[in-house]
Amino acid sequence: MPLHKHHLPLSILATIIMAGGLSACGDTSKIAPKADEGPTPELVAPQKSLIPTLNVAPAKGWPDGGKPIAAAGLQVNAFASGLDHPRWVYTMPNGDVLVVESNGPKKDTGLNPRKIAQKFMMKRAGSVTESANRITLLRDADGDGVAETSTEFLTGLNSPFGVTLIGGYLYVANTDAVVRFPYTSGQTRISATAEKVADLPAGEINHHWTKNIIASEDGKKIYATTGSNSNVAENGMENEVNRAAILEIDVATGTTRLFASGLRNPNGMAWQPQSKALWTVVNERDELGSDLVPDYLTSVQDGGFYGWPYSWFGQHVDERVKPQKPELVAKAIVPDYALGSHTASLGLMFYSAGMLPQYKDGAIIGQHGSWNRKPHSGYKVIYVPFKDGKPAGPSQDILTGFLSDKGDAYGRPVGVTADGKGALLVADDVGNIIWRVSAAAR
Questions:
Q1: CA angle, 334 as apex, 352 and 326 as ends, to 5°?
Q2: How many domains does the chain divide into?
Q3: Which of 87, 192, 198, 276 is the most buried (most CB within 10 A)?
Q4: Is there a domain that residue 228 lies in?
């Protein structure tokens, strides 16, 4: 059973955190900005410290009139506000926008100091709220870039995250199963009973609860992300079956197979327009210092192994994991593109609409933001240019300004998609807003 050696007794760690000593804990980044990005990031030696780096950006929400800062040539406005922890956005063929309002399943933290500490940090970051367990439908009937109607579209879900439409069915990834509902274009509410398509790994621990899904082009397969049940397998590999992975589900039968593994916490997925390959963004492991390990964007190979928990960014062995599996590490695939350490990159799309031609065919990524890095990383939406199906250049900021000068979080971006007109929609689960990024008026 792999073990995770904590550097500090957990009771002491919990006491420090509860006393508010968050920003005083751990190390500070020592590499140049953006050095931990790109196909060949700077990879330093793992940082060993008595206390893991803790630097939570307290969730404050947006002040009156506040909004993110859009890149030159762009403008941003609130497409919809007053939502309840919106995590994911999905545009239907008729232009209706589905917003998944969700959080993790409610669990008793018990008296374990690590669980107490984690819950305190998550609450401070705005990540502990009662899950609304619903999908809301937003409609911009007059095309002015603001949704006039907001309808309770689907309720009674179980910590939902990903959604996809295949034919006459809407598929939803609950935290424990993929389910589906009959759907007719234009309807504003689904009242049908859920039909289970396939189970997803959940259980009592369910550390990374978000499960995302995407359909194959022919609609015969669904690919589902399943994050790990731990940081580096400290809960035992017996609790990691079909986790830290992408699963392939046969739509007709529900038969499930392991498509790719060793992906600590994959979230957003998208099909790259030129290569037609599946790509994903992955949140890597914690507690190796502010400069490790970079989250990443990568193509996903059928049968590919990407290192977790035994190694990181290819074949860099994580010495905390015992026993090791050198035969697996030797097969570990190096990710295509590093996205910076602890950026919590979640949302992913390849932009193919015409409104924002400067982003054509490149990857747009929502970065939720760090809690264990100094200085903060993420808290923005970025663009990674592509050429011939591969990343081709440094990332560019699309939307920033989610952090105050004091380090408070006005908002935290998650899911990204394009609306029916080609504008970019961004789910902000702290601001409880869907932002719309469009070409600036001339």
A1: 150
A2: 1
A3: 87
A4: yes
Beta strands in 31-159 (DSSP E): 37-38, 69-70, 74-80, 86-91, 97-101, 134-139, 149-154
The pLDDT tens digits along the chain (442 residues) read 344 434 444 444 544 444 444 455 678 999 999 999 999 999 999 998 777 889 999 999 999 999 999 999 999 999 999 999 999 999 999 999 999 999 999 764 454 555 555 555 555 665 557 999 999 999 999 999 999 999 999 999 999 999 999 999 999 999 999 999 999 999 999 999 999 999 999 999 999 999 999 999 999 999 999 999 999 999 999 999 999 999 999 999 999 999 999 999 999 999 999 999 999 999 999 999 999 999 999 999 999 999 999 999 999 999 999 999 999 999 999 999 999 999 999 999 999 999 999 999 999 999 999 999 999 999 999 999 999 999 999 999 999 999 999 999 999 999 999 999 999 999 999 999 999 999 998 7
Give CA–CA dist 116/409, Å, rounded: 22
- Phi, psi angle pair for 244, to nearest 5°: 50, 50
Please report whether residue 3 resides in a domain. Answer: no
